[in-house]
Amino acid sequence: MAERNERHRGIFLHARDTARGDRIATFLSEEGIFSLFLFGGPRSSLKSAAMPYHCADVEIYHDRRTEFLKLTGVEIVETFDAIHGSFGQMQAAAGAAEFIIRTSAFGGDSAHAFRMMLSFLHEVAEMDETLASWALDAFLWDGLEPLGIAPDTNHCEQCGRPLFGLQASAALYARGDRGFLCAACGEMRIHNGFPQTAIYRLAPQALECLRSLGEFHFSQAAERLASSPARDSLGSIIELLAEQAAEGPLQALLLLHDRRILDR
After folding, report:
1. What CA–CA distances, in Å, run from 66 to 70, 94, 134, 258?
2. 19 and 96 share a domain?
3. Is the pTM of this model over 0.90?
4. Greatest CA separation found in the chain?
5. What domain range is 204 assigned to?
6. Is 227 found in the same domain as 187?
7. What does the pLDDT profile of the chain (264 residues) look like in tens digits?
8. The total number of structural domains that make up the chain
């Protein structure tokens, strides 16, 4: 049959209204990431349910001839109301959703993306607002792994030597790179004209903090990042790598940067 109804459990990541008053919602499930059309006026029950960060069981009318997807039913599972009441938490959730959308659910690993997003929403809804932006950085860092572009934190990207040693700097990161450089290769990069303002120097403790983030829940990883003396450099490196993966700036990060400055 060219037409059939489907059921999925997932999370609404984004919703926008068209000039006609209809709505297009981006929905993430273990089976994939979908653009769903909703019709009806502003008081439509479907529209009120299809809100960002709601977890729900949905019914979808799928016309396979045109790949048209229409949302026909929603049963809310969780709403994460605390996120909608906090600017920091809402922007962190928006950043995670934007990253998933821009990377096509981690390059098609929708099941992994769904589990990560659901866990992230649970934790962000319960954490202190001041930690939300650091939790997003932890999410972005973890998201590099299923994309296959997580940088090697043990060896120099250029020469392959171990990054730990007797050097004052354990590693350097050059803006635009995919990995870290040992002190010798980093200094050679600077000697060859790479601007020092685009270089991040990490002490061994900072690199170890970065390396261990994936071992913790998002709330714990956020606390580790926030308490690190190198937190600004670590956050910048993670976000630069994430924006490379997303092939452009992540809009939610711009607002969170402004909030971090106010929170200091």
Report:
1. 12, 30, 41, 43
2. no
3. yes
4. 67
5. 85-264
6. yes
7. 456 889 999 999 999 988 787 889 999 999 999 999 998 666 678 888 999 999 999 999 998 888 899 999 999 999 999 999 999 999 999 999 999 999 999 999 999 999 999 999 999 999 999 999 999 999 999 999 999 999 999 999 999 999 876 455 679 999 999 999 998 999 999 999 999 889 999 998 999 999 999 999 999 999 999 999 999 999 999 999 999 999 999 999 988 776 554 454
8. 2
